[in-house]
Amino acid sequence: MSQHHKTTRNMQTQKLKFKGECQDADARCWLCSQPINYEPVDDNDPSRFELDHYYPVSTHPEHQEDPANFRASHAECNRRRGNRAPAPGLGTLSRDWL
Predict the structure, then answer these.
(1) Cα(74)–Cα(59) distance, integer angstroms
(2) Which pLDDT score is estimated for 4?
(3) In this predicted model, which residue has the larger pLDDT, 5 or 14?
(4) Whose CA, among 16, 19, 39, 43, lies 20 to 30 Å from 25?
(5) Which of 31, 10, 24 is nearest to 90 (CA)?
(6) 58-90 tens-digit pLDDT
């Protein structure tokens, strides 16, 4: 966890609840749109679930425990993004291509 994150009992509870909701909904990574491994065998699996914050805690600590700020992400995608803004998406498809 980053030096900016404070681990509180409330945050741990919210994280577990959010992970369960994401797993039930089969939520994909908000950064790359690929499936997330919600039950990794290895704690070093880069595709495992990690709670990300839309507004980084390092720049917006007041939003750390705000569920509206939570996003489902891969551990690797979350680490790669750091506290920068997410890369812009490709936009909306003009039609179904497949």
Answers:
(1) 21
(2) 58
(3) 14
(4) 43
(5) 31
(6) 999 999 999 999 999 999 999 999 988 887 766
For the stretch 79-83, contacts whose Cβ atoms lie closer than 8 Å and that sit 24 or more positions apart, written own/partner, are 81/31, 81/52, 82/56, 83/56, 83/57, 83/58, 83/59
Closest CA to 76 of 35, 48, 96, 41: 48
51 close to 7: Cβ distance less than 8 angstroms: no
- Considering the chain, what is the average pLDDT of its residues? 89
Report whether 70 contacts 52 (CB < 8 A). yes
Q: Which segments of the chain does DSSP mark as H helices, in order?
A: 9-25, 75-81
Q: Which of 6-35 are b and which e, b meaning 16 or more Cβ less than 10 Å from the residue's Cβ? A: eeeeeeeebbeebbeebeeeebebbbbeee
Strand, coil or helix: what is 47?
A: coil
Tokens of 78: 């979350």
Q: Is 47 exposed, middle or buried (0-12, 13-18, 19+ CB in 10 A)?
A: middle
